[in-house]
Amino acid sequence: MDIKEITQRIRWKEKASEVTMNRMIERIYKLTDAIERQFPEVRRSNQIKLKHMLFLKNAWFCNEGLAPATIEDYTRAMRLIIAAKDKTPTGSGHSSSSRIDSRVVGPRCIVLLALSRETSGGKLRQ
Questions:
Q1: Alpha-carbon Rg for the chain in angstroms
Q2: Structural contact between residues 57 and 114, judged by C-beta atoms closer than 8 angstroms
Q3: Is the pLDDT of residue 105 over 50?
Q4: Alpha helix (H) ranges present in 12-126?
Q5: Which of 4, 11, 30, 90 is the least buried, fewest Cβ under 10 Å from its Cβ?
């Protein structure tokens, strides 16, 4: 799957090293490949939906036998995908930070909330 659309929309922090960015892009490739294997109808990155992220969180992580630290890294990559997909082509949209805005209501907020609680041991990050 071509993830160019996603990688172009990611806002990297200024202090992010090239190694960190490459690792995160490789994780995004692995996540999108897993989505494409499970859901053959998803051929392009703009077809990824939150149900695909839930598949990764609920099934793929367990089946891969990943360590907790690796799961946290993949969860960060999932957040980057969600944040990049929320941006419009003009560049406006939600920020790519991993903080949760409690004013946001809808399925995206619920998934991000679940991902944050899972990575922080059940406590919501502030």
A1: 14
A2: yes
A3: no
A4: 18-38, 50-55, 61-64, 68-86, 107-119
A5: 90
